């Protein structure tokens, strides 16, 4: 089971709206224990591409953020990005660039009036939408 703090989702939504019409991106951190994942915090990162269709994260910023996550005794759980004009599902590019089958990929859609946030596992076998509960 996956649990996500509501404040974390709200923070991602606010970031996406602030960076609109470009995609926003960032990391997710939290804890894992006996099949339970608790996503506790999001870390906004810079979309170097400044594009509404794709994103690139600054490697130096990624490295520094991982150090911060570890410094808070948390684990890197995955990453997230927004889709300003398309649904909350991985694009062909998202699937092609999914480099780590062990992490979670979050996608926030601003396509409709109400934002939609979904989590996915992406690996060589395909895409699996993950269920989560907001706490």
TrEMBL record:
<keyword id="KW-0482">Metalloprotease</keyword>
<keyword id="KW-0479">Metal-binding</keyword>
<dbReference type="InterPro" id="IPR051929">
    <property type="entry name" value="VirAsm_ModProt"/>
</dbReference>
<dbReference type="InterPro" id="IPR037518">
    <property type="entry name" value="MPN"/>
</dbReference>
<dbReference type="InterPro" id="IPR000555">
    <property type="entry name" value="JAMM/MPN+_dom"/>
</dbReference>
<keyword id="KW-0378">Hydrolase</keyword>
<dbReference type="Pfam" id="PF14464">
    <property type="entry name" value="Prok-JAB"/>
</dbReference>
<keyword id="KW-0862">Zinc</keyword>
<dbReference type="InterPro" id="IPR028090">
    <property type="entry name" value="JAB_dom_prok"/>
</dbReference>
<protein>
    <submittedName>
        <fullName>M67 family metallopeptidase</fullName>
    </submittedName>
</protein>
<feature type="domain" description="MPN">
    <location>
        <begin position="2"/>
        <end position="135"/>
    </location>
</feature>
<keyword id="KW-0645">Protease</keyword>
């Amino acid at each position: 089971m996956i649990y996500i703090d509501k404040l974390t989702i709200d923070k991602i939504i606010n970031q996406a709206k602030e960076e609109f019409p470009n995609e926003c991106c960032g990391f997710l951190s939290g804890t894992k224990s006996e099949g339970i994942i608790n996503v506790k915090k999001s870390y906004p990162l810079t979309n170097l591409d400044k594009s509404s269709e794709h994103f690139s994260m600054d490697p130096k910023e990624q490295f520094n953020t991982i150090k911060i996550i570890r410094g808070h005794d948390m684990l890197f759980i995955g990453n997230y990005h927004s889709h300003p004009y398309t649904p909350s599902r991985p694009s062909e590019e998202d699937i092609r660039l999914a480099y780590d089958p062990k992490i979670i990929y979050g996608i926030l859609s601003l396509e409709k009036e109400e934002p939609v946030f979904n989590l996915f596992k992406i690996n060589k076998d395909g895409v699996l939408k993950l269920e989560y509960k907001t706490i």
